[in-house]
Amino acid sequence: xxxxxxxxxxxxxxxxxxxxxxxxxxxxxxxxxxxxxxxxxxxxxxxxxxxxxxxxxxxxxxxxxxxxxxxxxxxxxxxxxxxxxxxxxxxxxxxxxxxxxxxxxxxxxxxxxxxxxxxxxxxxxxxxxxxxxxxxxxxxxxxxxxxxxxxxxxxxxxxxxxxxxxxxxxxxxxxxxxxxxxxxxxxxxxxxxxxxxxxxx
Length: 201
Known about the structure:
The chain is α/β, with parallel strands linked by helices and 201 residues long. 28% of the residues lie in helices and 17% in strands. The model has no long low-confidence stretch (mean pLDDT 81).
């Protein structure tokens, strides 16, 4: 599914010009272009000068984009092209799913972890999901109605990957990507639980 095909991506060239200017003025910084985002990195530069450049924030106005100030980087992306919106889009088009599992080790994954919070406790009422931006912006020619996902909060598992002291929005945690693979294999019946896994089950 290509979320950017129907979006206005004309802002990227303008932002590229701005970030190229940042790069020329900041030794050892660089720009990273992706399909749906552009990031300026200044990890190896003078941190105070890099932060000063970020505060200039000369982004393209009046466009459906968002600016993320990360750890030694500045990212610009469409508001509908983040992991949270992608999860919402998948769920919107598949409201009959009964189990959700997401895992990630990056700061941007915290957006994804917040997406399922739209579900109320199953004992209270059914959840009603409005069409997310990732649906309405990508296909603005249709009228989209609300849907009622059937998944219960008890069947939603958001899992952070990394050091145990990592601050995260999730309730579940593993320390390595290998643990994620092992647990998924176990859930699909591909492998029996080993001694290392029994503490998690």
